Amino acid sequence: MALALGAALSCTPAPTPYGVLPTRQQVEWQKMEFNMFMHFGPNTFSGMEWGTGKETAEMFNPTAMDCRQWTSIAKAAGMKGVIITAKHHDGFCLWPNPVSRHTVARSPWRDGKGDVLKELSEACRADGLEFGIYISPWDRNDPHYGTDEYNEVFVKTLEHALGGYGPVFEMWFDRACGEGSNGKKQVYDWLLFNSTVHKMQPDAVIFSDYGPGCRWVGNERGHAGRTCWSRTVVNEDFTGPRLSRKELNEGTMDGNIWAAAETDVSIRKGWFWKEKENSTVKSLQHLLKIYYESVGRNSVLLLNVPPDTSGLIHETDFLRLMELRAALDDIFSVDLAEGAAVEAENVRGGARKFRAGNMLNDNYDRYWAADDSLTKVSFTVTLPEKRTFNRVQLQEYIPLGQRVSAFSIDALTEDGQWKPIAIETTIGYKRIVHVPTTTTTAVRVNIEEAQACPVLNGFALFMDDIYVSDEKRNVPSGEIKPAAEPLILDLGEIKPLKGFVYAPKDNGEGGVIVTYMVETSVDGNRWEVAARDKMFDNIVNNPVSQEVMFDSPVQARMIRLTPQNVEAGAGAIGTESQTYGVSVFAPVMTVAID
Ligand code: FUL
């Protein structure tokens, strides 16, 4: 009888996959969790963020470049892959190729015989890291840009980069495109670009605002949504209306493709290395916050660590990465749920195969699942003794789809009551929930709502004594009030002005100026135009202060900055408090005086 029952139970079928699913490559990509982004090129030497395309190849001349230094640091930091800007918006190619005349082959570096992609792909292989390529479709150098022919040129560029350096795990398509008000616009053939990548590198996950492999998280500040679905909505041709920042940040519960969020953020203020930004390397606290709000929110973290003009990662960045690694090891190396017993209200078909204890097992493909009819179900973790923790980690088995849309966590009190310690929404591949520091013998997780029966393969408890959590409840409030009034600065007397610095308020909350006119005046009555139709490069995605220098000093007492195009609410999405631009637009402007 016992034998017959055992045989019957083992036949319980696995849950039917729910919704659109990740491919095998997307699951492997998500398991990487933490990768290095590297912005390197003429901008490293010019101090620009967006090169104009008029730079000469001669300026690219790193004096001591060593890709093994990059990869050994990435590896020591616990990263699993590296993605390099093979071609940024300025069009300069870090590898020699017959499609472009603007490449390393024309630079003095290694006497024009160097190839960054070759050196980096070899270094990645030597250090056991995956190799990825960023190529900007926007090209300010290529003469074909703005014509149909450019799409063919771009395909050849892709074929060349993707065909020569072994396996590529991720192809990063930057969708930034802007030439200012009089610039060229290209109609990109995304179906052609994506099929070229699939043809050349069938296993590569394609990043862009729309996927199809993974999607942009909607900001460059390092925050995925507290609700974060891996499904998103796209048109068949991967074009159509841009997804809103909120949609990018949070995904869409019933989206039509699987494209998990990738959180790209720089360790410094800008994406490219600048001497004067050595002091802007993010603090350990800031990096931990980013880690929790990306890896801990069902996203992959792509942290930019740009090499300097010598072609090496600067020691400040290196030391900070090592501090980050040490902190992560400290927090995550001891699972306080170790040795616990897990019991679920329901186990699928009563089968051992789907038992709740699978969540504490290291085998990724063993999971707890409930019966199909259940979308609200709890499990209880009983610890071997009283333990103290402040992080609860949960994982859904994503090969069967992302299902959970609401859950709560309770801790058992001394007098036997269940006390709520968290109420959250999505889980996805990995969710690390901040809870108050809790000492208890038992924890209960209540799946309150799911799109189909829950399927979880991970539960863990951790104690973090390092990061001072500032995670708050979601309270959307306020409204965006971007004003477009000119900003006027009066110095009180006539001085030689070299330029000015514009700093969006609170990292862009409430809006940023994108294009502007700037004028100067000696008396506040007559105004001289110093520049019009100018743009603060990449300020919407990365709303940090920007310095603008005049060609030569201007004698003036007043400076007036008139916004021509203001983008509302940049940077307001994805912060831990989800404030949608509550502050009124009030940026800062300062002047540089000779
Ligand atoms: C943006 C670009 O415009 C920035 O320069 C940077 O490369 C960032 C990663 O993506 O869209």
Note down, in words, how this protein is organized.
The termini are far apart. The strands form four sheets. An eight-stranded parallel β-barrel has the order 1-2-3-4-5-6-9-10, surrounded by four helices. Strands 11, 12, 13, 14, 15, 16 and 17 form a seven-stranded antiparallel beta sheet that branches. The chain is of the alpha/beta class and 594 residues long. It has helices spanning 2-9, 24-32, 42-46, 67-76, 116-126, 148-163, 190-200, 245-250, 284-292, 315-332; strands at residues 34-38, 81-87, 130-135, 170-173, 205-208, 214-216, 231-232, 257-258, 260-266, 300-304, 341-344, 368-369, 377-396, 404-412, 418-424, 431-450, 455-462, 487-503, 512-521, 528-535, 546-567, 588-593. It is built from ten helices and 22 strands. It binds beta-L-fucopyranose (FUL). The site of beta-L-fucopyranose has 8 residues, from loops.
Q: From the helix content, strand content and strand pairing, which structural class follows?
A: alpha/beta
Shape: globular
Largest sheet: 8 strands, parallel, barrel
Point out poorly predicted stretches: 1-9, 473-483, 570-587
Helical residue percent band: 10-25%
The DSSP helix count reads: 10
| Radius of gyration of CA atoms, rounded to a whole number | 26 Å
What is the oligomer described by this structure?
single chain
Ligands (ions, cofactors included)? beta-L-fucopyranose
Strand content: 25-35%
Mean pLDDT: 89
Number of strands: 22
Q: Order of strands in the sheet with the most strands? A: 1-2-3-4-5-6-9-10
Give the end-to-end Cα distance, rounded to a whole number of Å.
93 Å
